Amino acid sequence: MLLVNTDFITGKNLETIGLVRGTMIQSVHVGKDIMNSLRTLVGGELTSYTEMLNEARAIATKRMADDADAMGADAVINVHYASSQVMQGAAEIMAYGTAVKFI
Question: I want to staple 32 with a disulfide (CB 3.0 to 4.6 A). Which of 44, 48, 71, 102 is the partner?
Fold first, then answer.
């Protein structure tokens, strides 16, 4: 599945199929959450949060691509990501775009 963040694919004529999306809500282990809270006192990267968001983004992207595949799409254009904090230590990642078929 081709995924791009542009509204076109060079050399391809596209037929729009529709909106596709994938979501993931992920949290870190409570122990890691406490360690991250302490880390904020001295500064630096909160690596367990970085890992959590990277994993959630990958899963949301796969779910979006699977949604497009189920619709018979060849690609997803205008791919975007959004995130929000659901609660302390948990975040929602949403991947969304427009499923298209090559014509």
Answer: 48
Q: Dump pLDDT digits (tens) for 32-89.
A: 555 555 555 556 666 777 888 899 999 999 999 999 999 999 999 999 999 998 777 6
Exposed, middle or buried by CB within 10 Å (0-12, 13-18, 19+), for 21? Answer: middle
pTM recorded for the entire structure? 0.82
Give the pairing of strands 2-3 and 75-87.
parallel
Neighbours of 103 (CB within 10 A): 8
The whole-angstrom separation of Cα 94 and Cα 102 is: 25
Domain boundaries, the chain: 2-102
Name the CATH topology of 2-102: Translation Initiation Factor IF3 (3.30.110)
Tokens encoding 86: 């659901």
Buried b (16+ CB within 10 A) or exposed e, 25-61: ebebeeebbeebeebeeeeeebebbeebbeebbebbb
